[in-house]
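Researcher: Please translate sequence to C-alpha cells.
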Amino acid sequence: MSDTTLVPTPASGSAPPAPIVLSAHDVAVIHRVNSGRLFTPAHLHALAGADIQVRRGEVLGIVGESGCGKSTLARVLVGLQKPTTGSVRFHDRDLWALPARRRASEFGSAIGMVFQDASTALNRRLSVRRVLRDPLDVHGRGTKAQREARVAEVMDLVGLPPSAADVLPGQLSGGQRQRVAIARALVLEPEVIVADEPTSALDVSVRAQILNLLRDLKDRLGLGLVFISHDIQTVRYLADRIAVMYLGHVVEEGPAEHVAGAPRHPYTVALFSATPSLLTDTRRVPLTGPLPSAVDPPSGCPFRTRCWKASDTCARSLPEPREDRTGHLFRCHHPM
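Model: Translation complete:
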C-alpha cells in the first residue's frame, strides 16, 4: 500500500471492548477573563461537563469547529490543564488526587502528546538526537547506551533515517519534523497518544503519510490514540469512535460507522454536510446565526441558536444524554 493512500478503518467487530486506559468524567474548565468592566470579571466556559473514554488500541476522533474546546480537552487529558470541576482517571487512579511528583513521573510518561505545529513544538537549538533523548534523561530511563538505542529504535519506528539524528529540526521538511514529534511522544513507551491537529500544517500527500503512520503505530504498539481535528472526514476514516464537540460540550459520541452513517445530532449532520465525502451524496445543511460566545453561552442546549429544529424546550433545559444499544450517545431534544 502506498504511504499516500488513506484507507478506511475496518468496521468494529463483535469482540468485547478493550479496557479503558484514560477517561474524563463531567469535566468543566472555566477561565476568568477580563469583561472590560471594572470589578466585573467574566468567565469563559472552555469545557462544560465533557465525558470521554480512551480504550487500549482504539482511535478516538474528536471533531468540532474552532473554539469548541478540543484543544482544552487535549490539555486536560495529558495533565497540562487541571479541570475546574470533574475528574480525569488513568486506569483506576484519579490523576489530580495523586501527589505532584507521582503525577509527573507515572502519568507524565504514560501519556504522549503530538502538537499541531512541530516547528514550534521542537527545540530548534537541539539536534533530533537530543530532542528524542531528553525525555529519557529527565525520567532517568536506562543507561546512556540504552537511551541512545531507544532513540535509534523510535526513529526507525516513525520512518526517519539514522542520518536525521544529528541535524536540527529546522533542517528537516514539515513531514519529517512531525515524525520527530511523534517519535518524541513515543520514546517513553506511553499507553496513550493525544494528537492535537497533527496534520493541519502539512501538504495533502504528507498528511496522508502521517495519518497512515499513526494508525500503523497504533496497531503495532497497541496504543490508545486520541486524534483531534476540525476535519470530520479525516476523522471518519481514521477513528474507531468519534466524539463531536460544540461550545465545550460533547454532543454526540459513538462508533465511527454509526456517527458517520446515521448521525443523531443536527450539528453532526451539518458538520458532515460541510465537508462532503466522495463516497456519499450529502445534501448541504447551512447553519444560520453567529457562533455563540463561550463567555455568555445560551441557556439550555448550546446549539439551539443555530439549529433548525430548536423549540422552546431546547431553550429551557440541556438535553440529557441518550444512548442506543450500539453505544451511540447523543444530547438532543429532537434527534435526527
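Researcher: Any highlights?
Model: The chain has one domain: 20-34+43-330.
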